[in-house]
Amino acid sequence: MAPHRSKDPVPVLGPPALGKQKILDLLKFRPIDFAEIQKSLRENAEEAAKVKIGENKVEFSGRSLLGTLSRDAGIIKDGMRVSSAIAERSDGDFFYLLVSNFALSSTTVEEVRMHFPKGARVKIKHPRALCTAKGRVIIEIHNPMYIDFLGIEVPDGLTVEKIWEEASAALEKKDYVRAIHLLTRCVDEEGYKNKVEALSKRCQAWLGLNCYERAFEDAKRAHVVDSTHRHTYLLKGQLFLGLQKFRAALDSFYRSGLADDDTMKRCARLIEQRDTGNYELREFILGKSKAPEVGDYLGPVRMGMAADEEKGRGLFATEEIKAGQLLLVWNAAAVAPREDLPAKLMRKCLTSRKSLFQFLGLDSELAMEMGLFKPTNVLIHDQQQDYIWFDAVPAIAKLCSSYAFQIEDKPESPMGLWTLPALINHSCVPNVSQQMVGTALFVRAARNIRAEEELTLPYMDVKKPLDERMYWTDSRWGFTCKCLRCRVEARLHAQRPEFPCFHARMREAAKRKDRAEALEELRRIAVEVEDQIATLASPVERDWVRTSYYSAYRAGFLERSSDSPAKLSSRVSAYQMMAALHATCPGYGIVREMVALAKSALPSPGMEAISEKSRSLIEKECLCVLGEQKREFLDVFVDELLKGADFDILRT
Ligand SMILES: [Zn+2]
Fold this sequence. Notes:
The protein has 652 residues and is of the alpha+beta class. The chain has 4 domains: 20-152, CATH 2.40.50.140; 160-243 and 245-278, Serine Threonine Protein Phosphatase 5, Tetratricopeptide repeat (Alpha Horseshoe), CATH 1.25.40; 289-457, Beta-clip-like (Beta Complex); 466-650, no CATH class. Helix 8 (230-242) runs antiparallel to helix 9 (246-256).
């Protein structure tokens, strides 16, 4: 399946970008108390009433509120917010707390209670307070990272041994946040004898939350105290797997002496894939097995500035590349329904600083740092860098809308974000193809690529007329495509008034109720387009234009009626149309169109023996999508295609 850019923006709950000065103000975090919030809201309400601005919200930029989560957390499905209550330690009264961009439609109450445990001491940075009609105060947080957890209440006088027991019980119950807070008490206890065990268990709890970077810190600390601690090696193996450091994972599993055979084999397989770029996908391609686990792979690709300044950064080939060669394998940062994507990305950031920097880097100069995208590089938690969070919500909203891909061309289709492939710029004559294998994206050369050539892919279906392509690039992504194909077609449009009319007529035809009439008109358009381009000297320019009006040609070749005159096929053959598609947008859902075109040239429908040259062209197209495959495999695959098999990997 080949995902493509979404044509609709992604909704996010959040305030507008804050700006630098405000961020600096925020860093000071002067404390604020409950009484002050009440007072401000009251004054604000009076002000609001005077000038009739209505909304009664107070932002305490640069302030922080200390309190305890005093109620069990829950989910407000409307807008997917987490609700809880925050109270001062000894004060019976409480404020409601609402946290946006954390809950997903699949989030359970148990899960939010684990992340927002009752009894946790919290510091809420930059609160926004508002008053309900009933006079209840609500503290709104749009960025889950605005909450610092300072620990969990334990009864006074509890011995460290007792805390240890509670922590172990919490870990057993997979209550990871609670376990982490309790274990922190043990770790921090002066002269505590079980320090290695406590660090090791806390590492395990971080792992349970998928916080690999934090887990890594604890594993390192545990091994400083006791470099032979075997259980910590086992955990290290797991966290290195999560961080995609497969060699280190294998080494740690080996040292632990506790890992099973399957785990060791799994590491070895992932190492081999990454070293060779050989991913065994045959069973998956044929739909006989589910997607295999794959690690990220970075081929001969570098980041750079596109020649067209409007496009900004892009990816470039660092060497000469043959069609079909694998360039990138990239696991999704997140795949989720449209409305869940921002929250899912926020949660990814909560657990991984590398992800955070990759996301934010998409919108700034940070990502010029290719090291950030090296699969084996690990970023370690750094308190100094926390300020970047203040702009995270608007930045993530923006990058969801700009960079996320829609998996299928349907409004309800899930969306995904693949950080490095997201930097590939658009062209209407793309040179790379992309396929989803599970939630990993495989990016391949769809034609031969020169060293230092920019990699490009289409942001939308480019088998469309120039005007329609321009409409989408302008209105949705805010740029004008200046690819060679667009320039050639723009010139034709300027010279010949027929071209803009073809598009208008195609749109009119699509609206007709009588399908036979609509098809007849489309066939007429294809014939006229063909007459217009007959005088073009360059064969590839003819191919581009044919592809632009493909829906008209399609009506001519694939939806012929017995009485329609063969005007089109006397001008251009089905094979030429196949070649036009392959020359214009190889790798983009055209295999099945090509098969249909090849079959349309046969004297009777249902015959499978298409011409040698058609078959060889289809094989070439398969190379762009599947990469180099063994002869026997390709034969089986193409035979199945001709028999009408519908392979998932070819869907768009
Ligand atoms: Zn273009």
